[in-house]
Amino acid sequence: MKAYIMIKIRAGDVKDVVLQLRKVSDVKEAHMTFGPYDAVAVVETSDLAKLGSITALEIQPIPGVEQTLTCLAVDL
Known about the structure:
By secondary structure, the chain is an alpha+beta fold.
């Protein structure tokens, strides 16, 4: 399962948060973005429960992370 996690980050913390995101298990990519969100993390997991755990226990606690939006990717 693949998901894109859009992340709002406190001003001045984008670089540090992106570096920390790249260390999180199952995060395949993490990049700064322009627009309503400051960064995106591409996550690949085996199931929805694991995705929830990564988001709640590994990504949201990173200092500077203010809000996340998880978008599940599906194949047609």
